[in-house]
Amino acid sequence: MTDKHDLIQPDRGQPATALHLVSKDGFADWAKRLNAGQRAALAAQKFEGAGYETAIVPDGDGWFAVGGVANPGALSSWCLARLAEVLPAGTYRLEEDAPGPALLGWVTAQYRFDRYRSEAPDEAPRVLVTKEVKAIAPALAEAAATELVRDLVNTPAEDMGPAELEAVATALAKAHRAELHVTKGDLLERDYPMVHMVGRAAGRAHAPRLIELEWGDPTHPRVAVIGKGVCFDSGGLDIKPSSAMLLMKKDMGGAAHALALAQLIMQAALPIRLHLLIPAVENAISGNAFRPGDVLRSRAGLSVEIGNTDAEGRLVLGDALARAGELKPALVIDFATLTGAARVALGPDLPAMFARQDATAEALLAAGTACDDPCWRLPLWSGYRDYLKSDVADLNNSPSNGFAGTIAAALFLDRFVPDGVDWAHFDTFAWRPVAKPGRPKGGEALGLRAAWHMLRGRFGA
């Protein structure tokens, strides 16, 4: 996993290579300040100031670097990311405008998941020197949270099961003096029956558990953060094909997001009473696996007929949502790699977001746009509630008509959130299939920073 590096430093006049940012529109005027040899060097590298273009320019006995951006005065989170990926290792000082949000991309671009590689990394880091001292700590905190999601999702299931998720929560609790409570194995059967039923086939080695962390002043507004922790999803008896199972180590991506958001909240001492809940299971196959047609009890008192054992995430989330709602939270946010239908509708980059209250949805959308972590709202369309009808139980976990799978899953979760509770749900992919600057292929935080910036705007001191 990625070691923590001091990749951004306050400017104290330390030696650093100059780094210039130029737009395509401003390139011609900027290039007039250069000598003929420097312009020739740029031409040889086909640098014209377009986004993500980079070049190294000779300057006396040394050199400086230049990167193309759309607007040097309004940098996005990814404007410096390509530079951080391709420049030689060393220390750089941005010569023109302040980096602003682009500090994040400078760090996340240098993420490497190297836990299983035998060879040691052979490249030293690239360090950015900036006068924006107040922006350094928030950028590093968000980068660390993003990299936590990446590390957890990239780790295969044998090394990232329910016990390992508990260990991460334990470390967070210890670091921030939070309270931790874990209900595990057969003890789940009474209070969290759906978590127990989904996870029991994995046996003792990967025993299911409900992980709860509480932190903060009890007099502050209570905010519940919930993450789907299905550490591997075989599909159960409705087994997935092998091609669909390849990426199922990432099915605990919701839990990774929830843990990372909890880390951000506690590090910043946000004035809330945090309630983190992670139902951690492996959806395995054995003689005691739950079956299609079974009827499950739930913590909320609703009975659920199993239409498909591969729709297990909504079951474990149902018990967690019910538990969170009992404590009368001001807000509940959950993250889950819940449906393939969300990816069909929105692709890999956009998490589907649902919210009961328009104001909460609008705040999440605005925060995501502002911090370059966009999401897209889908409706909790009540007309599709009939899709969840069962002939023998209160609900069916998997409609068979094939329509509106993402909305139907959200409506299922909605039944486990008490009336009147402000609730938002992210159906996120937690994976990047194709690398982009600052965003390598693999596990990814999608919706994390949108939620964090919304919470900071709503509850910040």
From TrEMBL:
Q: Which Pfam families does this chain map to?
A: Peptidase_M17 (PF00883), Peptidase_M17_N_1 (PF21337)
Family annotation (InterPro entries): Leucine_aapep/pepB, Macro_dom-like, Peptidase_M17_C, Peptidase_M17_N_1
According to its UniProt entry, one GO biological process term is: proteolysis
TM annotation in the entry: none
Q: Which UniProt keywords apply?
A: Aminopeptidase, Hydrolase, Manganese, Protease
- Judging by the UniProt lineage, the source's domain of life is Bacteria
* SUPFAM superfamilies noted in UniProt: Zn-dependent exopeptidases (SSF53187)
Could you give a GO molecular-function term held by this entry? metalloaminopeptidase activity
Keyword check for Transferase: no
Quick check: keyword tRNA-binding in the entry? no
Q: Where is the Cytosol aminopeptidase domain?
A: 308-315
* CC annotations in GO: cytoplasm
Q: Which family does this protein fall into?
A: Belongs to the peptidase M17 family.
Q: What is this protein called?
A: Leucyl aminopeptidase family protein
**To which species is this protein native?**
Novosphingobium aerophilum
